[in-house]
Amino acid sequence: MARAKTLSEKKIFVLDTSVILFEHISIMNFEEHDIGIPITVLEELDQFKKGNDTKNFEAREFTRLLDKLAQDKSLQDWIPLNGKTRGSLKVIMEAGSGKGELDANEVFGETKNDHRILNAALRMRDENKGRKVILVSKDINLRLKAKSMGLAAEDYETGKIKNVQSLRKGMIEIEKVDSDLVNHLYEDGTISPKEVLKRKKAHPNQYFILKSDKNSVLARYNSQEDCIHKVDKRPVSGIKPRNAEQTFAIDAIMNPDVKLVTIQGVAGTGKTLLTLAGALEQRREYKQIYLARPIVPLSNKDIGYLPGDIKSKLNPYMEPLWDNLKFIQNQYKESDKEYKAITDMVAKEKLMITPLAYIRGRSLSNIFFIVDEAQNLTPHEIKTIITRAGENTKIVFTGDIYQIDTPYLDSQSNGLSYLIDRVKDHPLYAHITLEKGERSELANLANEML
């Protein structure tokens, strides 16, 4: 049995507002250590309690959780958290301006909430001599300010991928495969994985480029049948795959047995275009196609500052999605039935391009659901979306984990990275990383040289 830690061994973690908005149950994830919540954090959470965004949900849920924990107790005292293995929690009042005390407002020459939170953490350290006090924040600048004042500071690590480079790409290239095996796969469509992988184990729906001295073949591992299937190159909605990666992406999008797909890649690799084209190809299999993306405010301003009605405000965010739809439609002549079918789908709302916030809370049955720019979502938001899936619903997340536009997220903590890491061994899931830019030679130049 593990030895109970003494008071001096137990740390005190002071949480910033960004941590609470990232995950309201974060206070339960610090094991036996104690938690301090600056009073300024409660004030900031009050500003987020109204709204339908995930951060508004997190603010409301944390307030309810804190109220439940407090009941008839004073938040000025240490309140035990639920569970025998957890520590206690209290609300910290602001310090500073006292004789001999460090005051962040004076140090940085400005009075602001971040500095009040720093002062609360400094007060906690001064009142708990002999115990390590650590400020936890998703805000890099706040962590740097804390360290510059001699205060330990850390990022909130729960759910964070330790090594992004270890995320599997979804495909493996195997050279020097026996040419007879490659020919057999071409002719029969399947081979045993043992013949190619020997003792190595394949992930469900993992893709392969099998090369012999004479030829090569594209393939996918089917874990339910325990065999490797040949993958054929096929066009969808007039869009032809230009490389092996895109061929694999289309296979995952079109596979009815795969209900969850992630496609990761830099700009210009065809993530959204291929997914939308695949969805349109299967339009008769689903009641509706939803193409959604999170709204990331411009220059940290809410969309309310933009002129016009709600449709006008959202157009700048949705325009890239409409561009992809127009590109697919322009593969056909205006007189073609395929061209008219896309126009008709939009008019009848069989195909909807919408902000992600408008989807939350709905039950998604018989839907092909595309979530673009998924790297700007938190792990909790990703989970919330997937849990809305009903019968005959397929969800495809696309994005670039290195192109984060949301404050407090990075390549390790965003929802897309989290999803790729957590569900890699499930037969309902497939993933592919697109690395080759196919938008244009000029776009490739920018990605490779700049």
TrEMBL record:
SUPFAM superfamilies (alphabetical): P-loop containing nucleoside triphosphate hydrolases, PIN domain-like
An example Gene Ontology CC term for this record: cytosol
Keyword entries, A-Z: ATP-binding, Nucleotide-binding
CDD domains registered for this protein in UniProt: PIN_VapC_PhoHL-ATPase
Domain PIN: 11-144
Entry's Gene Ontology molecular function annotations: ATP binding
Pfam hit, one: PIN_4
Family: In the N-terminal section; belongs to the PINc/VapC protein family.
Name assigned to this protein: Phosphate starvation-inducible protein PhoH
Organism field: Roseivirga echinicomitans
Taxonomic lineage of the native organism: Bacteria, Pseudomonadati, Bacteroidota, Cytophagia, Cytophagales
